[in-house]
Amino acid sequence: MKHFILSIISITLLFGGTFLPQKVMAWGQTGHRVVAEVAENHLNKKAKKALQEILGDSAYLPIVSTWMDDIKSDKKYSFMSPWHYINLDEGETFKDIQRSSKGDILKAIDDMIKILEDENSSKKQKALAVKVLTHLIGDLHQPFHVGHKSDLGGNKVKVTWFGKPSNIHRVWDSDMIGSKGLSYTELAKFVDTASVEEVVKIQSASTVDMMNESHQLCTRFYKEVGDGKLGYRYIYDNYHVVEDRIMKAGIRLAGILNKALG
């Protein structure tokens, strides 16, 4: 399949500026593809048609869901690095924080939605917006993407995972999901079980609501690191949260795309 990538000229014109990169991941490839697969299941006909026109041969959200991680080694995209997260320290609320001048996940999501809703946006701009939005809605539902600035969202909180070095951010990104050995399509089938009524309720959340959910969870999981020796018990106690977050991310992504492209 053909993969559409915007030229750096178009990106610079659209967003402007360059920023220093940071290494940030969320959900890993499998998790992001699960979010996108769930979203595919909840797209309406108008959104599906619009995505086909925008993305062409790549009009399948799991294909584009990892694009923002795929391009991290390319310096011309380093200005996107701060878009993957927003930091709230313990006890802080959204009203307390000073937003980064480099942008953050909430601003990036809002910007992408505006591009999709604007009938004057070009196909290139909309294609980039879909890629970014598909990824960032997933990121926003990973609890440690709303973690503490001091430890880089849990990246500095060292733990062992079945005796091997890891950190609490990575545990939530990919270690727990990887432990199940499921493909993204298999996992999507397991988690995409919400009723029509539940879907409506899930999609009623604002992006600030989504952020607050993640922050509340992350505050809890910071406290539950304990001695840092994580394994089977940690999976048993917390895997249902992983399933819930990726399910909600997918359903909400579909709701956003249905509204913006409908």
TrEMBL record:
Q: What Pfam families does this protein's entry cite? A: S1-P1_nuclease
Alphabetically sorted, this entry's keywords are: Disulfide bond, Endonuclease, Glycoprotein, Hydrolase, Metal-binding, Nuclease
User: GO: which molecular function terms?
Assistant: endonuclease activity; hydrolase activity, acting on ester bonds; metal ion binding; nucleic acid binding
- Please name the InterPro entries in this protein's record: PLipase_C/P1_nuclease_dom_sf, S1/P1nuclease
Query: What does UniProt give as the signal peptide span?
Result: none
**Single biological process term from Gene Ontology:** DNA catabolic process
Kindly give the Gene3D superfamilies that the UniProt entry links to this protein: P1 Nuclease (1.10.575.10)
Which ranges does the record mark as transmembrane? none
Protein name (Swiss-Prot/TrEMBL)? S1/P1 Nuclease
